[in-house]
Specification:
- There is one protein chain.
- With 91 residues, the chain is of the alpha+beta class.
- The protein has a single domain, classed as Glutaredoxin.
- The chain has 3 helices and 4 strands.
């Protein structure tokens, strides 16, 4: 699944347009990102950009524990999945 700060309507439209095969969840109040301890702290609470995460990956085990996380600084970089799979093989 993917998690975004965007509104559900926006995510539905994007998912449909891109024909995604996975679910997109909306975290407009930054609660999920706070719970997973991955909030982007470059902006203060109350700022319209507060909590917008950098692109990255979070792996959560069956007990809800974050076992892997990696985020890029800046929004232009994206995950290289071959490298991600190598990292995950070491878990």
């Amino acid at each position: 699944m993917g998690i975004s700060y965007d509104a559900p309507k926006t995510l539905r439209k994007f998912s449909h347009k891109k024909k995604l095969s996975y679910t997109l969840l909306s975290d407009q109040n930054v609660e999920t990102f706070k719970a997973l301890n991955v909030v982007n702290t470059e902006n203060d609470p109350g700022d319209r950009h507060y909590g917008i995460p950098f692109p990255g990956v979070i792996v959560v085990d069956n007990m809800g524990k974050v076992v892997y996380k990696y985020f890029f600084e800046g929004y232009r970089k994206r995950v290289i999945f071959k490298e991600l799979l190598k990292d995950l093989d070491t878990l």
